[in-house]
Amino acid sequence: MNGALLEQTFDLGGRPPVTKWLRFAQPIEQCYTQETAERRVKELRIAILLGLFIYNIYNISSIWLVPDIVDLAWILRIGVITPSTLLLVWAIGRISLEWTERLVTIGVFNGYLVPVFLFWLSRDPASLFTYAELPLTIIFANLLLALRFANAVVFTGSAYVVTLLAIATKGGLGYDLSLTFVLQISTVCFFALFANFRYERMRCENYLRTLSARLEAEMAKSDGLKFRDQSRTDDLTGLPNRRQLTEVLRGALSQRRSTAVLMVDVDHFKLYNDALGHPAGDACLQRIADAFARIAAADESAFCARFGGEEFTFVLQDRSEFEAARFARSVQETIEALRMPHPARGDGLDVVTVSVGVTWGGRDLSRDLDEMLVAADRALYEAKRRGRNCFAFDEGGFVPSAASA
Q1: How confident is the model at residue 230 (pLDDT cuts 50, 70, 90)?
Q2: For residue 173, which phi and psi values (nearest 5 degrees)?
Q3: Can you list the domains of the chain with their CATH numbers?
Q4: Are 351 and 336 in contact (CB under 8 A)?
Q5: Rg (CA), the chain
Q6: What is the DSSP secondary structure assignment for residue 80, as one 8-state letter?
Q7: Cβ neighbours for 158, distance < 8 A, ≥ 6 positions apart
Q8: CA–CA distances in Å: residue 233 to residues 9, 224, 225, 241, 282
Q9: What are residue 287's phi and psi, to 5 degrees?
Q10: Whole-angstrom Cα distance, residue 7 to residue 74?
């Protein structure tokens, strides 16, 4: 059992996960209750109904064992205990599990009082044999009902005291028989309560062991997902990295979907770094990445990744060539609109801009991943050759006019 893991997961405040009364610390108790309440209610209902059936069988034995008060025995068993027990069976699925445990404890103690009372009240010599019901009821409560340990202590202790009082005040027992009854009830109470303690301790240990294993598995899965996400995310920009780009592009091409790849490069970025320093260059890339992330988030068919260095890549799915061209123009214009100063470029522009290379493949065009990336990169160099701050299609692709785009 990983106590440190439980302490980390649940705010135990330094408390042990299980108290000396075999109750979980409150945060764990809430978790346990949520997970087991339905099963516990079902088990209690079955045990109570079975116990009630056996309990009423003793109505038959009352004819011979307590003939002097048989009518009272039947009234108590059938008229009082049976309907109250059936009411309890109905109620326990409709109240909290904590109150269910309390009411079951009260109910089984009330049921115990009847045979004790009949044993004490009857003056028929055969009434001594009703004493056999008492150990059976104690065993039933501790093992079959499996009262929670604290409740089992309360029930067993109360039953023990009531039984001793009945033995002490029942007339005609004699010293030897009274001592025998006391020894029997003492032994039964001790063994039944000890068995309940072992069962409850095992229940708690098994749950904590299962819970700890489940938490470890969940944390391992979470760490694995986190590691996987980190391995597929660019550290500087937070965009997906080239590895994730490859997965997305390969998936799109395998589905034979119309796919466009846009290779984007920051114009004169080396000059920017040389003039302002690498920290400023990183900040520039981060700002551009943020703009690209917003573009991709606004378009469910667009995916953006950092390809490497100052290069970024968009993947568009289910788009025509004309739509890919419009998208490339919007990417270019979005970065220019940021108006990030670029003091080192010598082409007359004083802001950061990007060049975009576009390649497109229709559903009926079979192109693999490498071919798409090479074609997009080739188109990017064409855009640079044209003077940068523009976009170009790969040779052989559809090249719309500036007016139409």
Answers
A1: low
A2: -80, -45
A3: 3-218 (no CATH), 242-393 (3.30.70.270)
A4: yes
A5: 40
A6: I
A7: 109
A8: 28, 14, 12, 5, 16
A9: -70, -40
A10: 54
pLDDT of 359 higher than 80: yes
Polymer length of the chain = 405
Q: Beta partners for 265?
A: 311, 355
Reported confidence tier of residue 9, pLDDT bands at 50, 70, 90: low
Considering only CA atoms, which of 25, 19, 22, 21 is closest in space to residue 7? 25
Q: Which residues of 176-194 are buried (b: 16+ CB within 10 A; e: fewer)?
A: eeeeebeebbeebbeebbe
Our CA dihedral for 388, 393, 398, 403, rounded to 10 degrees, sits at -20
CA angle centred on 250, ends 249 and 252, rounded to 5°: 65
The secondary structure of residue 394, as a DSSP letter, is P
Please state, rounded to an integer, the average pLDDT across all residues of the chain. Answer: 87
Query: What is the tens place of the pLDDT at every residue in 288-323?
Result: 999 999 999 888 889 999 998 999 999 998 888 889
